[in-house]
TrEMBL record:
This is Probable oxysterol-binding protein. GO terms for cellular component: cortical endoplasmic reticulum; cytosol; membrane. Belongs to the OSBP family. Residues 438-453 have a biased composition (Low complexity). Keywords: Lipid transport, Lipid-binding, Transport. Residues 418-431 have a biased composition (Polar residues).
Amino acid sequence: MLTNWFTAPPAAPKSPADEARSDSSEEDAQLVDSEQGNVLYHIISHLRPGADLSRVVLPTFILEPRSMLERITNFMSHPEMLLPIPEIDDPVERFVAVVKFYLSGWHIRPTGVKKPLNPILGEIFTCYWDLLDNKRAYYISEQTSHHPPKSSYFYMAPDYNIRVDGTLKPRSKFLGNSAASMMEGVAFLTLLNRGKDPTKGERYLLTQPNMYARGILFGKMKYELGDQSIVRCPELDLVAEIDFKVKGWVSGVYNAIGGSIKVESTGEVLYELSGLWSDKMVITNVATGKEEMFFDARKSKPTPPTVRPIEDQEERESQRLWQKVVEAVHDRDHEAATDEKTLIEDRQREEAAVRAADGVEWSPRLFRRVRGGPGGSEEGEEDLEWIINTHINYEAGPAAIAEQIMAIHPIVTGQKPDPTNSIPPHTPSTSNHEKQEGSNGQAAASSASSQEVGAEDLRVMSV
């Protein structure tokens, strides 16, 4: 039983906030055996506090067997929280529902301390959710930068007037007995049937807490979320400031949150948030003092997405790309996992060298630069950097919108890659052009047929 400095008398009834403070720390802890500890210590002993870990090759026994592009879908895995939001008429209730949805995905995580696989440049992951009444939601993501890492993603539920655009920019640091992943980047949740401007909808800006791995040199390895994140809707003049609290050396509990929902212009607090992101969270109406259960992670079952079969995927789609690594991790064959992972990373370095020799600047295949700045069509979304490279016609209706989305890249079961678009436009040097034509006769034809796609499309050669 966890306690704090202000323990209520035993006979006093527990409030929902008190009930929320249970300890789920064992799920987030991992014992490291002596051999694994030696490997970690060897790597870490060469680092100084504050060092950037983005270029450090970590041992496979701490890897989560899926790519970061796939892990992002945790955010969308409670559709029952998300889909009803556009139909809520009261703006404050609608904002509170967005905050509830935002908090609902953090409890989805592997046991122990696991880091997802770093996507390679140009890696793609797509999936979809089957919803009620034969409706669907779609997700498309691409690794739009490798150093520094940037994962761009797009989600849409056409029948529910919901769209999400995001770019995640994790930045890793070594902190002594801890490692931190600073989760920079933003997401924009747009309700297309709301807002003063029907062409833009009602837009919510979301940021993420940072992630910490504690005890990497001694003690149990422990996963924590920490620091402040926000949910903000400028049009409604509402903001939620959410503190993910790390456990102190002497007091505190694991996985605690606190925060408030307030009117941004005046600072008036409307609601307070408390509890555990891994268990029960409570919302308190400041005006009335009434507490309510906000979200109960123990009773909420995530809805995982459906992914096309691996045999139907392109070579650079996440599950096919990392298939052998994932199989080895599941088999606890860390030597094989390391070998397979090294092959992928070496190939990525070789591709970068070829692009440098050819003078080719890489740009994403499915995403384009945000058209921000004063008067730009995506003004206010500059922090995304990249956005899906397709104009979605919202007036076309849900069925037509779904067709537009599925035309971007194969998403649903039965869709297969279009081989004519597998090798993007590329203008190599003369000597390398001869080599490429000899090794892959498709390249020239594919490049010619793709020239009409536009300057924002991918310009990286496929080695």
